[in-house]
Structure formats: C-alpha cells, structure tokens
Fold:
Amino acid sequence: MKSTRVRVILAVAATGVALTACSPSQVGAAAVVGGDRISSGELDRNVREYEAALDKAGMSAVRQQFPGSVPQVVLYQLATARQYAKVAERKGVTVTEGEVDQVINSQGGATQYEQQLLQKAVAPSQARAYTRASLMITKLMAKYGGGADQQALQRGQQQVIDDLRSVPIEWNPRFGKINPQPSQEQPQIFTAEDRFGKASEAALTQ
Structure:
C-alpha cells in the first residue's frame, strides 16, 4: 500500500523506534507498552502463526529483507500497533469496524490484504488491530495538522511523535539493543546480534 496514509505512518514508525525504552519492567515480557505486557508466549504464538502463513503463501522471510530476525520484527509490529492505539485513544480518537473493513476491502479483501501484511511482519490474526492502529494514528495526525492531505499529516506528525513519549515501550534486552537512529546504512531495529539471529540489511517498510 503506497497511499499517503501509509507513507506517513511509516515515517512515524521509523521515528518511534528512537522513542522507546530499552529495559524490561516485568518478568516474562517480550515488551511492555505503556504498562501493558506482551508476553513471551504471546510473541511466540504470533511468530509461529506468521511463519506458517508465510509458508502457506509460498513466501520466504529471507526475501522480505527485514531489518531484524522474524521474532524481532513481529514483536516490533505488535508493540508499536499497541503504542499507536493507546496514544490515539488518550486523545479521543476512535475507529469503527466499518472503517477497518473499508481499508481491507480496498486492498482486495481479507485474504489478499493479510498476504500483503506478511511483507510487514504482521500475522493474519493481527491484521485488524494493525489496521485500526494505523487509522487511529493517521486520524490523530490529521487532527493536529488541520486536514487529511499529505501536508496536513506531515504538520501533525511532530505532535504525534511527542505524544508517543507518553506511552514508552520497554523491550526485553534479549532481543538486542534498540537502534536509536535507524538509517539507510543501519536500518536494523535492534543493533545487537542475539540468539534470534543477526539483523538484515534492508528496511522493514520496503
């Protein structure tokens, strides 16, 4: 999806990496988002579902050239989707099921849309939550920017980035150290090599 909405969301996502914390606050958590745990078990289930969906679609994780191992990028998507939703909810932004359906239908229906999201490390069961969070943060940017066009979203983006600081993400250090300044040369989400494997050389959002 190459819409204005998605391009701006990805820009916020890249910045969101630099805004998150780096130490776990609860035992057994893969990450903690504004005080809410994403357990290691929940992450493992999502990774298994994601890898099974890749196999079913005849896709390879290696060919996706993610900026990290599969567990790293799946966790990143889970955590940031929750962060975006929490921030938007605090500002009174809501998204209806009909709006989520509209996005899915515009991409060819659930099956095709879920396959598209495999390229972003989103498991099929998380498709609606991911879409809802994306829509919510876009609405918040539009609210701040005074419109829904690209320029307005860009105006609202800085305020959203500031808001993200109110919902920090704490990452379990077993995934590595968060990359505070992702770049084309160093796009990895987590910079340290860990037991899940070394991060790859390409960006998650490509």
